[in-house]
Amino acid sequence: MKTKEGVKKPNSLNPGKIKERGKKMLKIAVTYENGEIFQHFGHSEQFKVYSVEDDKVVSSEVIDTEGQGHGALAALLDELDIDVVICGGIGGGAQNAIAEKGIVLCAGQAGNADEAVEAYLRGELVDSGANCDHHGEGHNCADEEGGCGGGCGNCGGGCGGCHTPAFEGKNVGKTVRAHYRGTFNDGSQFDSSYDRGEPLEFVCGAGMMIRGFDEAVANMEPGEIVDVHLMPSEAYGEADPDAIFTVEIDQMPGAEELQAGQQVYLQNMYGQPFHVKVVARDEKTVTFDANHEMAGKELNFRIELVEVK
């Protein structure tokens, strides 16, 4: 519950594309090299493809790519019927090619590929978008394929996709591992890495985390524990009333089966799935809320920095 998903407004819905969360057979592809997320999408020689059912990985396989460049890779992902691609650095051309195929992008990631997929299924990854357009002097990622062709020399190879940090700190740009416990103001717990028995690994300052959590870790020492209170602006933002929308049931086949409280996936005009909650339904209409479930809430975290790599 730490990473931030922006509100995905529907713009225009694609009728007949309703999938109940946890019921969809999902296919996730990760740019892959030696167990890790390969950092340059346009030059990825392998994808690890995961088949997911009921929000659990049921199988996986490593696929060799059929050529470099965002066009060829996007076409391959489309042929493999991929729903989501997780990667590190990616340029605007590749981002557009993936969007045209109706594939969800989750860029700006780093670390173990298997762990990233598990984090995605828990709702703990955020797409940083095209993230190879801000670099230091002498570093060029604007290769002809729109990928990250130069190698991230100015960020030590660990920037999680060349995302420009919004703040400074000695841990920014480094891979860190941290335990945490998250609670609401009434003391009730909403998430804990301690309960899962495994610290969270992420690249500090790479845009993978909600800002308040990320900033708290930026200057911590391994073994240090801090308590932070985050306002909505430092976490998942305020709830956006424009992300609540009503659709005529007869304009959306399958909507007649929906019930208030269900979490489902819809598709926008580009064929990209986005997660919503059914908040109301009557005989003629159904109302959806695309806000993140934590939008508008103040959050508290106890963070223990375990390791800086």
List the main descriptive attributes of the protein structure presented here.
alpha+beta; 309 residues; single chain; disordered N terminus
Topology:
Elements: E1 19-20, E2 26-33, E3 36-37, E4 46-53, E5 56-64, H1 70-79, E6 84-86, H2 92-100, E7 104-106, H3 113-121, E8 175-183, E9 189-192, H4 193-196, E10 200-203, H5 211-217, E11 225-230, E12 244-248, E13 263-267, E14 273-281, E15 285-289, E16 299-308
Helix pairs in contact: 1-2
What does this protein structure show overall?
The protein contains 5 helices and 16 strands. By secondary structure, the protein is an alpha+beta fold. Strands 2, 3, 4, 5, 6 and 7 form a 6-stranded mixed sheet that branches. A 5-stranded antiparallel sheet has the order 1-13-14-15-12, with no helix packed on it. The protein is globular, with a radius of gyration of 19 Å. It starts with 18 loop residues before the first strand and ends with a strand. The model is unreliable at about 1-25 and about 130-165 (pLDDT under 50).
Give the rounded overall mean pLDDT: 77
Instruction: Note the gap between the termini.
Output: 23 Å
Question: Mind telling me the C-alpha Rg?
Answer: 19 Å
What's the number of extended β-strand segments? 16
* Helical run tally: 5
Beta content: 25-35%
- Described by the principal axes of the CA atoms, the overall outline is globular
Work out the helicity level: 10-25%
| Series of secondary-structure elements, N-terminal to C-terminal | EEEEEHEHEHEEHEHEEEEEE
Low-confidence stretches: 1-23, 129-163
Summarize the biggest pleated sheet. Answer: 6 strands, mixed
Class by helix and strand content?
alpha+beta
